[in-house]
TrEMBL record:
The keyword Phosphoprotein does not apply. Pfam families: Methyltransf_5 (PF01795). This is 16S rRNA m(4)C1402 methyltranserfase. It comes from Myxococcus fulvus (strain ATCC BAA-855 / HW-1). SUPFAM superfamilies: S-adenosyl-L-methionine-dependent methyltransferases (SSF53335).
Amino acid sequence: MKRAVPRKAWPHRIHVATRTFQALRMAVNGELEALDALLAAIPGLLKVGGRAAVIAFHSLEDRKVKEAFRALAGGCTCPPGLPVCVCSGVGDFALVTKKAVAASEAEVEANPRSRSAHLRVVEKVR
């Protein structure tokens, strides 16, 4: 891989093969499909006041979690054809973390694997 990818294109502080092997692992293990199944199951798993916390280590995973949590906490769920909102625009979930929480510099120094971790939390409120 070092010979196939020019040095200028290498990611900063990450070996050139890291993302390739990460993508292979994710595909072989079906990680994105498992994440989709988990995110779909969250509403049925939590009681009111319960929280779901997900740590994503890859931007694809983080995007899926972000979109799923925003959909759960979203406002109006009325069909698009209705002229007036009848659901009062209140979701069953609330975002506990508006943005993903990343590891601090001290944490990354102590635990280098935490550098790509992003934590998102949602709470069932109804």
